[in-house]
Design a protein that fits this description.
By secondary structure, the chain is α/β, with parallel strands linked by helices. 30% of the residues lie in helices and 17% in strands. It has six helices and seven strands. The radius of gyration is 15 Å and the shape is globular. The two termini are 24 Å apart.
Length: 206
């Protein structure tokens, strides 16, 4: 299955069309956090109409990640939120743009959350899907991504029962870690060329 097809499956699922490509999870309303004021949205080019909101000052952030939230031009309350995790050596924005996520968001009106790894965490910009301190509930990078989701839902009124996650390669492995550690917040997920959660628990094992 190619990336564009899987993306469309996730969009269909976000519109409550059941497809076999997803893991069904229990749903729960997002928990509120007290967050500092963020920078104003940044307009995007390359044929997309929405805006990119930097999330580099969100707290809590135990995994020291950065990120962005893409808001389509015609965003409405109660629309789905899709979390997209990039692969090694990639940036979140470049991957989301190349894979068509931002165009799909404009077309269907959902939000796209784009967590971003930092070189201070991993020299190759890989999410640390193999490090125990980053893949256990309430710790490290998975906790940072969860905080971004919570803030996005409470601030922009996304539907807490229609949160989905997808990733490529190392991002897919981290998406699997999110589904395993926070199953109650996701309605489904799609992993592209990633290993299952728990396959490795160290750099050597990875």
């Amino acid at each position: 299955m190619d990336i564009e097809t899987l993306n469309l499956f996730i969009v269909q699922c976000s519109n409550k069309t059941m497809v076999a490509a997803f893991t069904d999870c229990r749903n729960v309303s997002a928990r509120e956090f007290d967050m500092p004021t963020l920078r104003r949205p940044t307009p995007l080019s390359k044929g997309v109409a929405g805006q990119l909101l930097p999330l580099d000052k969100l707290q809590p952030n135990p995994g020291a990640l950065t990120g962005s939230l893409y808001l389509p031009e015609k965003l409405q309350r109660g629309t789905p939120l899709i979390v997209v995790l990039h692969g090694c050596t990639q940036t979140a924005i470049d991957y989301a743009s190349a894979a068509g996520w931002l165009e799909l968001a404009d077309r269907h009106g959902f939000g796209v959350l784009l967590p971003q790894q930092q070189r201070s965490n991993n020299a190759n910009l890989c999410f640390n899907w193999f490090a125990r301190g980053d893949i256990e509930r309430g710790q490290g990078e998975v906790a940072s991504i969860k905080a971004m989701i919570d803030w996005s839902v409470t601030t922009h009124a996304f539907d807490a029962e229609r949160i989905y996650i997808s990733g490529l390669s190392a991002g897919a492995a981290m998406a699997g870690a999110m589904l395993a550690t926070y199953p109650e917040i996701f309605a489904g997920g799609g992993l592209i060329a990633g290993l299952p959660h728990g396959t490795a628990t160290s750099m050597t094992g990875a």
